[in-house]
Amino acid sequence: MQAALSLFNEKGMVHVRLQHIADAAGISVGNLAYHYYGKEAIVFALIDELMKEQSVVLANYSAVPLFVHIDNILEQNFSLQSRFEFFYLDTLEIYRMYKKVARLSERHISNQLMQIEGMFNFNAARGAFIKNADYASLARTFWMAGHLWRYQQRLTGKTDFSLKEYKEQLWAVLLPFCTEMGIMEYRTI
Questions:
Q1: C-alpha angle with apex 107: 81 to 38, nearest 5 degrees?
Q2: Residues 77, 8: Cα–Cα separation, whole Å
Q3: Spatial contact of 52 and 125, defined as CB atoms under 8 Å apart
Q4: What pLDDT is stored for residue 24 in this prediction?
Q5: Is the pLDDT at 74 greater than 90, yes or no?
Q6: Domain 44-187, CATH homologous superfamily name and number
Q7: pTM for this one?
């Protein structure tokens, strides 16, 4: 799996064949095909691993998502985006080619959006975010900004990805919804 992940990240998923993966892993294509019936099975296994790790990240902080916890989520998501870069750059192609992956991902995204909205509602209830905002829309915007961040960096010619810049851009989405208390808390992280 590591050989496939490295190749997908380096060349893009659509440019990697089973032969490339087998060569990088030091095994025959037949041996690879014995364990994974095709590239779709490998992509599915990698994305399943990514989604499980994303779920753990959100679950760890869902009970009391203070700003420091949201900041930790951003750091961990940045790390996952670095490890599984191909998914964030090739999402549309993956969905077009592999409907099973698309369906799994759609359910996962729906769960992520509910968890993110819950974090925002929690922060509104404790006074760190303004009351009566459309936190479902904010959750979608926040998710989209985070999920597509690496892609938009590439579109603008950037190849050096900075955790600091990633976090600043995502916090910029949230700061307009912060109360004075929320701004003070943000400044402490």
A1: 70
A2: 19
A3: no
A4: 95
A5: yes
A6: Tetracycline Repressor, domain 2 (1.10.357.10)
A7: 0.90
